[in-house]
Design goal:
Shape: globular
Order of helices and strands: HHEHHHEHEEHHHEEEHHEHHHHEHEHH
Oligomer: single chain
Bound molecules: zinc ion
Structural class: alpha/beta
Number of strands: 10
Radius of gyration: 24 Å
């Protein structure tokens, strides 16, 4: 459409609005978030308040409501699909979810971390209890939606069933069934960011954070810069799934052991078994440790973060694979991080600062067995005042040959190992498969 003048912009807005009134259930006007109408009456919200009632609900109903107290929209990136459903005439834009029978399958909390504004800054700690604690707002017609859901599941992990991966667990009929299936509680969490708290975690100021978020999303969320009174942002990024093995009460009981792996998504390995990294074997080892700990009276926890390819995305990740394998001398541990930096500008964009929020939300104060070698994750958890007992590295025999490059490079860069830290010259010796060798 090119660059629009003010008159054209108004005309275009009217055209769209008129069409939508005919085909959909829209209100008459498009409210530009960059030009608030002046009728804004956001529902009160006080992050970290002592009770849910005092805190108030996160109201991120789609644009146009004067009651909104948050930037962005419910369901994060999936709001785009919701937009398609409405544009296609399949969904009423005024639809509000019927929350009957959707309450958490398991009750836990509230924990004291829920009411500490600095302990949890990227999750709504009341997000799974919206239907209960904000029922009066909902009854009054305010569109308040859960950002967390808690349910039960039974997992079938092929490595558990077949005994490959060296797994030798004994079924107990409670956590691990005779069939090899595993009983778990699973929790889906969408991000809800309290912007002043996020800025603090990253050692920046709220203004700089807001401007950066505004610009790097292509100006998608103008309220980041026009509405400093709105402190909560629902970013269009992937969320978290937490899998709990054993009794959830064991997680917060200091007398019972907790095994925990915090795993960042790697679809190629996790789901498809790609052998260039250790993600799936280490994840399965974490599940195995979680089951064993639960079977011995404790609990296990797997936190699965949707931060594909070190939060760079799969396109960048696959570009890096090609660059690694095509470089002079082939894919070596020596140049592992450098290749990522050449393409992405950084070695890693995950920044673990927000990761401990889910641990705080679950009321965790100590992890007895931390199934991760990442020093960044370890440091971030300690920084939040959560203790860590043992660190459990991936067993050597679970590392696929082509993943040696990654593993050696990470160990040399400071990842936890009980063995030798590779030297500079060791790193030049570790080679991966070339692109012609597939
Ligand atoms: Zn991976």
């Amino acid at each position: 459409m090119g660059v629009l003048g003010a008159q054209e912009r108004i005309y275009y807005s009217r055209q769209v609005t008129d069409t939508n009134i005919m085909s959909n259930n829209y209100s008459k006007h498009i409210t530009l978030t960059s030009h608030p109408s002046g009728n804004q009456n956001p529902v009160d919200i006080e992050w970290g308040a002592k009770t849910a009632t005092e805190r108030g609900p996160v109201v991120a109903t789609p644009a146009g409501s004067d009651l909104r107290n948050s930037i962005g929209s419910y369901s994060g990136s999936y709001s785009v699909y919701r937009a398609l459903a409405i544009a296609a005439g399949k969904l009423d834009p005024l639809h509000k979810p019927d929350l009957t029978n959707t309450a958490p399958a398991i009750q836990f909390g509230p924990f004291e971390q829920w009411t500490d504004p600095a302990k949890i800054v990227s999750i709504d700690p009341w997000g799974h209890m919206v239907g209960q604690v904000f029922s009066d707002h909902i009854a009054n017609g305010t569109d308040v939606r859960p950002t967390i859901a808690v349910t039960r599941a039974r997992l079938s992990v092929p490595e558990m069933v077949s005994g490959i991966n060296g797994v030798s667990l004994v079924p107990d009929g409670v956590v691990l069934m005779e069939t090899g299936e595993v009983n778990v509680i699973k929790i889906a969490i969408e991000p809800v960011w309290y912007l002043p708290g996020i800025a603090d975690r990253f050692g920046t100021d709220e203004h700089s954070l807001r401007r950066s978020l505004f610009e790097q999303t292509g100006g998608m969320f103008s309220e980041l810069v026009t509405r400093p009174d709105l402190k909560v942002f629902l970013p269009p990024i992937g969320g978290i799934t937490a899998y709990v093995f054993g009794e959830i009460s064991a997680i917060t009981d200091p007398a019972r052991k907790l095994s925990c792996r915090v795993h960042d998504e790697c679809n190629g390995s996790d789901v498809f078994g790609s052998d260039i990294c250790t993600c799936r074997p280490y994840l399965v080892h974490g599940i195995e440790d979680a089951i064993e700990t639960a079977q011995s009276g404790g609990a296990g926890l797997i936190v699965y973060n949707r931060k594909e390819g070190r939060a760079l995305g799969e396109v960048t990740k696959f570009l890096v694979y090609n660059a690694r394998k095509r470089q002079t001398g082939g894919d070596t541990a020596e140049n592992y991080f450098e290749r990522t930096e050449c393409v992405a500008g950084v070695q890693d964009m995950r920044f673990q600062e927000l990761m401990p929020d889910v641990l705080n939300w679950l009321g965790i104060t100590r992890i007895d067995r931390f199934v991760s070698m990442s020093n960044m994750k370890y440091d971030a958890i300690l920084e939040q005042g959560i203790e860590i007992g043992e660190r459990i590295p991936i067993p050597e025999d679970l590392i696929p040959p082509d993943a040696r490059v990654e593993m050696d490079a990470k160990k040399a860069a400071g990842y936890f190992t009980e063995g030798e830290v590779p030297t500079e010259s060791d790193l030049t010796e570790t080679h991966g498969r070339g692109l012609e060798e597939y």
